[in-house]
Amino acid sequence: MAAYAERVGFVAHVGVAGDLPLLKRLLAAQFPVIIETWFLPEPDDGMGHYRLLIGYDDAEGVFIANDSYNGPNLRLPYAETDALWRVFNRTYVVVAPPERADALRAVLGPLSDSANMWAHSLAQAEAAVTAAPDDAFAWFNLGTSRLRTGDIAGAVEAYDRARVLGLPWRMLWYQFGPFEAYYAAGRYEDVLALADANLKTSNDLEESWYWRGMARTALGDIDGARADFERALRLRPTYHEAEQALQHVSTP
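^ thats the sequence. predicted structure below, dont judge the formating
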């Protein structure tokens, strides 16, 4: 999404570890904000979903959003918004014309810098785990924050804890940190098991085909890996990592 916006001439910022005051500051500065959030159309049927925030009302305690599923001018209570948003480590996307790039950076402040943003994410996740040690999403966000700040062993530990506590069955359709962390730690069988579990629920998850191929490569199943990378590329022909991996296993 952000890459497409930049290709057509806009500036885009993808952030994590946002909070409600930041959303309000962006909206007050006339920057609509896309948030990546959990969505529960039916019990035990949660899925990833994007919502476009276009305003807020402190008197009512709601954000105002346009929603592809529920329609325009949806009123989202602050607490409910945050509870669903945190499943994706409070990821947000802001797209703006280039002439407003400086204004956007001014609102974001230190969070416009990736290293600062991930340090903030780590601190936010650590605080969440301390406050609620049985919260699977807090541990998952801690795993992702540790991964992005270079702590592979710590990321694996946090992801393990999140999985023991229990995650929604579609969680790894959208977030791939556990694949990356377990692979980096040499836990290839775990990568394979997670990919297989995903692919039993849906066979059009190109990231799962890719990570299964990576695990198979590491485990010596080159033919199987090649088939997985080819499947990933059929689903997304522009998948650069899968293309590189396929070239690697196809080179004599």
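The beta strands are 11-15, 33-39, 47-57, 62-67, 71-77, 92-96.
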